[in-house]
Write a structure and sequence with these properties.
1% strand; mainly alpha
């Protein structure tokens, strides 16, 4: 809980850097009632929320370091690198896009500061040194991770021999990082619409408006750079995880994708978390358009109220994986 609250504070600092105080405050409020974030923050044993906590802290501290000079700046850049490295340790599968993001930021935001780049890179490598040790203990090789996708379904693949790790839990480093489920763009987009956008449509609609505003003349250069970076990361995550067949690891007859407990939403958590300022911008666009009407001032309050009601229903009461259903099944 403490890490999630800290991540929210860092998220506000990061959003403010690109969208200003007004949009950042609303984005933080929407983040608090974002159903995807809310649900995953409440579930234990899922690394996805911890991953975005470390990533958000790294991003916020990185841009804070740009405002500083001397040893304080170097220390903050090193701290940002450590948090970025810890994010990759938690979710090695995200190393490609996280590494590309920080490489671009480090090169373009620290031009002419070679010492800064060196500190950030060395600090990011430091947490990664533990990964080969852990993997060697878990999988018998320093460069093996996660689960493979070319095995039989889980219910058939799990070994009865407790001394041997199941085959589906072993895949090499390259297979874990690069499009591990293959390239199926249209299939991935269809799954993103069905299993990503549809369950949280009330969050998607204002985010789409904010996205269009960000790439148009309504958005400044800084918000436009944020939107383009978000689009690039989102495209990779959608194509990468949208090719995943959730039925592969699900019991027969159980719908693996619908509802807030979908594994797809868990993998796409960074998309929805970092879309919060886009949703806030979309609501602000609506409010500005209606400012001369009786509904103008109430637009933000009504939107937040609607978000809260729909998110509460989705997280607590909708489907077999809602929190109330899980609590009921646990108590039974």
């Amino acid at each position: 809980a403490a890490s999630v609250l800290a991540a929210f504070s860092f998220a506000y600092l990061f959003f403010r850097e690109f969208f200003g105080i007004r949009a950042a405050r609303l984005a933080l409020l929407l983040l608090l009632i974002n159903p995807v974030v809310w649900y995953n923050a409440s579930r234990s044993m899922y690394p996805n929320m911890l991953f975005v906590c470390f990533l958000t802290a790294a991003l916020a501290i990185f841009f804070l370091a740009r405002r500083l000079r001397g040893h304080r700046s170097l220390a903050c850049f090193a701290l940002a690198g450590i948090f970025a490295g810890m994010a990759v340790v938690v979710r090695p599968a995200e190393a490609l896009w996280v590494g590309a993001l920080f490489a671009a930021m480090t090169l373009f935001q620290t031009i002419g500061r070679k010492k800064t780049i060196a500190w950030a890179v060395l600090a990011a490598i430091l947490p990664l040194l533990v990964v080969p040790i852990v993997n060697n203990n878990l999988y018998g090789s320093a460069w093996r991770f996660g689960y493979a996708v070319n095995e039989k379904p889980v219910r058939e693949a799990v070994s009865l021999d407790a001394a041997a790790p199941p085959k589906f839990s072993q895949v090499d480093l390259a297979g874990q990082i690069f499009l591990r489920f293959g390239f199926h763009a249209m299939l991935a987009l269809g799954r993103f619409f069905d299993y990503g956008m549809t369950p949280v449509w009330w969050f998607v609609l204002p985010s789409a408006v904010g996205l269009m505003a960000g790439v148009s003349r309504l958005g400044g250069d800084r918000s436009r750079s944020y939107v383009l970076s978000w689009l690039a990361a989102a495209a990779y995550l959608v194509i990468s995880y949208g090719a995943f067949n959730a039925e592969f690891f699900t019991d027969p007859g159980q719908d693996p994708a619908m509802g807030i407990g979908s594994s797809y939403l868990r993998y796409w958590l960074p998309i929805f978390l970092f879309a919060s300022p886009l949703a806030a911008s979309g609501i602000i666009v609506f409010r500005d358009r209606l400012r001369c009407t009786p509904w103008g001032r109430a637009t933000t309050a009504l939107a937040v109220l609607l978000f809260t009601v729909l998110s509460t229903r989705s997280v607590f009461y909708n489907g077999a994986e809602s929190l109330s259903a899980i609590a009921r099944d646990t108590a039974a």
